[in-house]
Amino acid sequence: MLSAEEQLHIIASGAAQIVPESGLLEKLKRGKPLNIKLGVDPTSPDLHLGHAVPLRKMRQFQDLGHNVTLIIGNGTALIGDPSGKNTTRPQLSQEQVQANAETYVAQAMKILDPEKTKIVYNADWILSLNLKDLLGFMSKFTVARILERDDFTKRYQSQTPIAMHEFLYPIM
After folding, report:
1. N or C: which end of the chain has fewer CB within 10 A?
2. Is 12 exposed, middle or buried (0-12, 13-18, 19+ CB in 10 A)?
3. For residue 55, which phi and psi values (nearest 5 degrees)?
4. Cβ-count burial of 23 within 10 angstroms (0-12 exposed, 13-18 middle, 19+ buried)?
5. What is the pLDDT of residues 127-148, one digit of tens each?
6. For 23-45, what is each residue's pLDDT tens digit?
7. How far apart are CA 123 and CA 74, in angstroms?
8. In which order are the strands placed within the sheet that holds 117-121?
9. In 10 A of CB 61, how many CB atoms?
């Protein structure tokens, strides 16, 4: 394994900023593989160009000997990420989400090393929640906290409807 400083140099290349860089260097100096995770919601059939940067960075971590996990948001995709949206996303069926998830994995493996990539599906834990569990999670958040999100604030201030299920997205 390369030195922590050499690894940081590779990881920092092409990155605008690492926050905090000293924290990453400290973790690299421990000499143990880091656990790097990326979550993607399969809300369409194809990954987009914006996914390429984190996937390539994850591949660099893999090549440096670190552990990589791709989290397929097949549970959160049923809600639909409200980020940056000024309207409610149309809800997808589980079948649509599953079909999209399969294409996401196939596309991501063109960049990531399939032999070194752990793939998990958040529906495995999200869809098994019962009402008691869900209420427990929801009790940790306030409407004010959720409305701090820029997307919700803009929609609320412009009196654009926000469906209740959209509030579950940041909680999940």
Report:
1. N
2. middle
3. -65, -40
4. exposed
5. 999 999 999 999 999 999 999 9
6. 999 999 999 999 999 999 999 99
7. 5
8. 35-40, 67-72, 117-121
9. 20
- pLDDT tens digits, 97-109: 999 999 999 999 9
Report the chain's terminal Cα–Cα distance, integer Å.
36
Q: Are 7 and 39 in contact (CB under 8 A)?
A: no
**Which position has the token pair 């609320």?**
156
Secondary structure percentages of the chain, helix, strand, coil, to 5: 50, 10, 40
pLDDT band at 7 (very low <50, low <70, confident <90, very high): very high
